[in-house]
Design brief:
This protein has helices spanning about 10-20, 25-30, 35-50, 65-90, 105-125, 140-145, 175-180, 185-190, 230-240, 250-260, 290-300; strands spanning about 55, 60-65, 100-105, 125-135, 145-150, 160-175, 195-200, 210-215, 215-220, 225-230, 245-250, 265, 275-280. The chain is of the alpha/beta class and about 300 residues long. The chain has 3 domains: about 10-90, Winged helix-like DNA-binding domain superfamily/Winged helix DNA-binding domain (Arc Repressor Mutant, subunit A, Orthogonal Bundle); about 100-165 and about 275-300, D-Maltodextrin-Binding Protein, domain 2 (3-Layer(aba) Sandwich), CATH 3.40.190.10; about 165-275, Periplasmic binding protein-like II (D-Maltodextrin-Binding Protein, domain 2), CATH 3.40.190.10. Strands 3, 4, 5, 6, 11, 12 and 13 form a 7-stranded mixed beta sheet that branches.
Length: about 300
């Protein structure tokens, strides 16, 4: 009886070939922006599907088995043919064209992405750009998105991540609030204030505030009767109206600080950051439109 196979994801093949080239799951993970565990699990799933061992593993190294060498040669030929086909298609284009579907959270979309899109459209006028502004994690493969901008590193081994920036944070309040309640000078004093809490849509848990003191990273957990769900910008407006203190990215608060509607406090405890990344599936990393957009975004955010 013939063995029945499920269709294999192209991203798993690309990951396998990268691991074969680098002869290290650790180096493969670093080169793709993944965890070593994600790489190991992806290879294990591939081996389970094929019913063969592709790598011989020791505590210090990996090497291809005979079956792995055979599989690698066939896979590399297939990947080379795909790359050649995409080069042939994009080579006929003076510039990228077609439809580009982007997903971005409300914070990054409104304060980073949208201001950059006019310049991008001028560079690539043949591209049709569609942006979904949402804090939910979209499914690339079911919903047909090309690129997503997200906070943090992806856990999905099928995705490639390009770091856009490490966004700095500050704690802010309105001048009227600070006039009524005073300015906190320490973390203990901060707990005595009215703190606005944002609840993460992905987990339903409050997002901790993050600080650095005496060279040590501190996750500041607290409970509050002032909570905002779904859209973090709503919490900023609450703070701006005098409702309490809130920790948010400097790039969001900057204009209100310049207009003296917000004041930053707790600066000696600053220095921590959170990463924003552009994510896209392995099988789209050769797409001219995806490459053009991600390269543009990386270049622009490097200037801020």
């Amino acid at each position: 009886m013939n063995r029945s196979f499920e269709p294999v994801q192209l991203g798993s093949i690309e990951l396998f070939c990268r691991a074969a080239d680098l002869q290290s799951f650790t180096k493969t993970a670093e080169s793709l922006g993944l965890t070593q565990g994600a790489v190991s699990r992806s290879i294990a799933r591939l081996e389970q599907r094929l019913g063969v061992q592709l790598f011989a593993r020791t505590t210090r190294s990996i090497r291809l088995t005979d079956d792995g060498e055979l599989y690698r040669s066939q896979c590399q030929q297939a990947l080379d043919q795909i790359a050649e086909a995409e080069r042939a298609i994009t080579g006929h284009q003076a510039e990228p064209s077609g439809s580009l579907r982007i997903s971005a959270p409300t914070t990054y979309a409104n304060y980073r992405l949208m201001p950059l899109l006019p310049a991008f459209s001028q560079l690539y006028p043949k591209l049709s750009v569609e942006v979904n502004v949402s804090n939910r994690n979209v499914d690339f493969f079911e919903e047909g998105y090309d690129v997503a901008i997200r906070l943090g590193e992806p856990k999905d081994s099928r995705l490639i991540a390009r770091r856009l920036e490490d966004a700095t944070l500050g704690v802010f309040a309105s001048p009227s609030y600070l006039k009524r309640h005073g300015t906190p000078q320490s973390l203990d004093e901060l707990r005595q204030h009215q703190l606005i809490q944002f609840v993460l849509p992905s987990s339903g848990r409050p997002m901790p505030w993050i600080f650095r003191a005496a060279g040590e990273d501190i996750d500041f957990a607290f409970t509050s009767r002032r909570r905002v769900h779904e859209d973090v910008v709503g919490a900023v407006h609450w703070a701006r109206a005098g409702g309490g203190l809130f920790q948010i990215y400097h790039f969001i608060a900057a204009d209100w600080v310049a207009q003296r509607q917000l004041v930053e406090v707790m600066q000696p405890f600053g220095g921590r950051t959170r990463p924003f990344c552009a994510l896209y599936p392995h099988n789209r990393h050769l797409s001219a439109r995806v490459r053009a957009f991600v390269d543009f975004l990386v270049a622009q955010t490097a200037r801020v």
